[in-house]
């Protein structure tokens, strides 16, 4: 179960450099606990440098940076520098992406993703340890080798510990690995509270037990889709947008296992077929209210804060709400109770 600590609420930071500083500053001023960038059309690390420069309190992380598009030494340098510049507020969130993107978009090797990620994290710790303690770097693995580190290439010491590492995981192997080697778990929006409770948390617990750690030493982070509005028209618009997004996620074979927990696995092939035809509106119409409310928090703005808290209670330690078709005024009203 989730820890007894206060639920942290996070927000997104645009990965466009021109927008990152203002967005991060606004998150901090509005009482958020953390800000995350994503690796989509822009690099996820560079905006966090600007975010660190214009904030002093909130945690800053990547959700996610694609690990296998890089090597551990490159990521170790980025993590070390952002941790130093942010004065210990950086979280390194990593994910695998999928094989076609790694091989055909990034032109990098793909194999045994769980084993490769385990080694990637171990290599990061070995590099940071050598920089921190001055020991010899001697890392030899199945996928990565790091054995040269001279004074010229060793960064200056810093007073902060190495960055926390969060891993994105849905499948059992990666989720158990996350509990064993990472400091936190990054969840996907296409995950229900039931899936988290019945599947994710027990698997994370196995990994934590293997590492000899307590649940209180680990953070579970969730992205939760939210459909709300200040009137019936706004709420209906948000619900329609949320249905389409859930249908899009559900069309991906990787998330059939999430649908199957609720007995909806047979819907996935149909959503996938329609996605190939670009029938996005039709896909959304296949989701009834029960499915919508299973994967999204839905309700008028005056009720949504309590509903979001209920969705997270006892399950996650931090939440990143994803609002559909909502104004900033609406979002602020919805999250008011979290920032008391």
TrEMBL record:
Residue stretches making up the Luciferase-like domain: 15-314
One Pfam family this sequence matches: Bac_luciferase
UniProt superkingdom: Bacteria
CDD domains referenced in this protein's UniProt entry, alphabetically: Tetrahydromethanopterin_reductase
SUPFAM superfamilies named among the record's database cross-references: Bacterial luciferase-like
GO molecular function: oxidoreductase activity, acting on paired donors, with incorporation or reduction of molecular oxygen
The protein's name in its UniProt record: Luciferase-like domain-containing protein
